Amino acid sequence: MSETAASVTIFASREGVAREQVHLEEQQRVLGITPNFYVVHDSRNAVPLSTKLRFQLALRASTDPITIAGVGALAGMQEAGGTPTTQKVRKVTAALRTRFRTQNSTLIS
Hints:
The protein is mostly helical. It is built from four helices and two strands, in the order αββααα.
């Protein structure tokens, strides 16, 4: 009996491969919690992302519930701590508020 070898070659578009890689990146999390979307584990076969896929990945990372909770917690800690940055922002906001009020009052009268 003679043995025959079969070979199968599969071709995929770059866009299709990039979409699949983005889908896999969206599943990556550190310790199963924190999003880790911008890490590529297979750099040899990485396909450049289109602009649309880049924006979709950025939107996904920005609207992830864990990211939003982390940003909120960090902002709360800074606000509670009264950091110099928070105090500076309050001063600038108050100055802009008074300036805006004086400009509007002169325009109205």
